[in-house]
Write a structure and sequence with these properties.
alpha+beta, Aspartate Aminotransferase, domain 2, Aspartate Aminotransferase, domain 1, 2 domains, 9-stranded mixed beta sheet, 3-stranded antiparallel beta sheet, 13 helices, 16% strand
């Protein structure tokens, strides 16, 4: 078997839906609604229902989604927002663009998501609650800490019960970065919820490679808070509730009608695709069993993952393994090889190598294997056999 195994195969999903996409596109050709169309509203209603929230607000991208959610949650210039350094830069771009300063917390070394223990340690050591304003204040800078943004990474959910408990103690808002976990389920102590419904709001990206992807850029915010939903609707449309009546300066961040129509088609199949990803993950785990140099993804009891990526941990020769797989025509990915606190863009924050040891160690060992609906069992066998052959040497 000499065929190439790509890291990603969007065409496999799109080809069977081609006629549905064409029909949706043709309907849009005669659509006279320039913005805030009925197609967008219909998708928003269906996506809110899927997530289990009262509202879903379609926006232009996942970055827009998180930025608007932060602003609507009351984040102001000079505030501090806590997140993790092992995520795509869009997470921290949204924080900075909302006027806030990102603050990093190390990760749980098994799940790669925010460590509740590190979060509580940071707040205890570096912050105090002002009993007059009831704000959590960073002791050194005097700036308010406003929001916690846990990232549900690779399709796995962060430990939200513990994070929300800590947030409540310090009167902080929690906003989920759910861009990589569309449809993942959280088994909390008191309820079972999907991502986007676990905290104050959830930010989603519909980047084409995501579990639910558009054919361009798109995103959404989910929430149960009516006031927050109304604010986000205005933020995405130049700060206006009615045309030419601008209550504040906003953004041009609306969800495009064509993208909404594509997402509306694909949303019907998302649960099926996520189930297939879980089956593929289970097969990978079985096939990779016994390779001592490899750790397979850790799925905690509270998280039903949707495996946006299947990320193994290589405790020996990760880069050489990747080159070996490349020679065998097997695509792989690195998510993410350079943590954000070590990026030139965030040098001004003053972090250095060694600040977040779990994150830094993970960045040197992670390797993403092909993971998408349509990946065949014999392809998985080829991938895992080549990994075994590499380490047998």
């Amino acid at each position: 078997m000499n065929e190439r195994i790509p890291f990603l195969n969007i065409e496999f999903l799109h080809k069977p839906l081609e006629q549905e996409f064409i029909n949706a596109f043709r309907e849009n050709l005669s659509n006279q609604e320039i913005s805030d169309s009925n197609v967008v509203k219909a998708f928003e209603q269906e996506f809110a229902c899927f997530c289990g929230t009262r509202y879903a607000i379609g926006v232009g991208s996942g970055t827009d989604a998180l930025r608007f959610a932060l602003i609507a949650a009351g984040v102001k210039y000079g505030d501090m927002v806590i997140t993790v350094p092992n995520t795509f830069i869009a997470t921290t771009e949204a924080i900075s663009q909302a006027g806030a300063m990102p603050v990093f917390i190390d990760i749980d070394e098994k799940t790669f998501t925010m460590s509740p223990d590190k979060l509580e340690e940071y707040l205890y050591k570096n912050c105090f609650v002002d009993h007059i304003t009831e704000e959590t204040i960073h002791t050194k800078t005097g700036k308010p800490v406003r929001v916690i943004v846990p990232v549900h990474l690779y399709g796995h959910i962060a430990d939200m019960d513990k994070i929300k408990q800590i947030a409540e103690k310090y009167d902080l808002t929690v906003i989920e970065d759910a861009c990589q976990a569309n449809g993942a389920v959280f088994y909390g102590k008191n309820s079972i919820k999907k991502t986007g419904a676990i905290a104050k709001a959830g930010a989603f990206s519909f980047y084409p490679a995501n579990n639910l992807g558009a054919i361009g850029e798109a995103g959404a915010v989910t929430t149960d808070d009516e006031q927050m939903a109304d604010k986000i609707k205005m933020l995405r449309d130049h700060g206006q509730k009615r045309k030419y009546n601008h209550e504040f300066e906003g953004y041009n961040g609306k969800l495009d009608t064509i993208q909404a129509s594509i997402l509306k088609v694909k949303l019907q199949y998302l649960n099926i695709w996520n189930d297939e990803r879980r089956k593929l993950a289970k097969k990978y785990k079985e096939m990779l069993k016994g390779i001592k140099q490899i750790e397979t993804p850790c799925e905690k009891p509270f998280s039903k993952s949707v495996y946006h990526f299947y990320v193994i941990r290589c405790n020996y020769d990760r880069d050489k393994l990747r080159e070996h797989l490349k020679r065998k025509k097997i695509g792989t990915g690195l998510h993410y090889p350079v943590p954000l606190h070590l990026q030139k863009a965030y040098r001004f924050l003053g972090y250095r190598k060694g600040c977040f040891p779990f994150c830094e160690k993970a960045s040197e060992e992670i390797l993403s294997l092909p993971m998408y609906p349509g990946l065949k069992e014999d392809q998985q066998w080829k991938i895992t056999e080549q990994i075994k052959k590499f380490y047998d040497k």
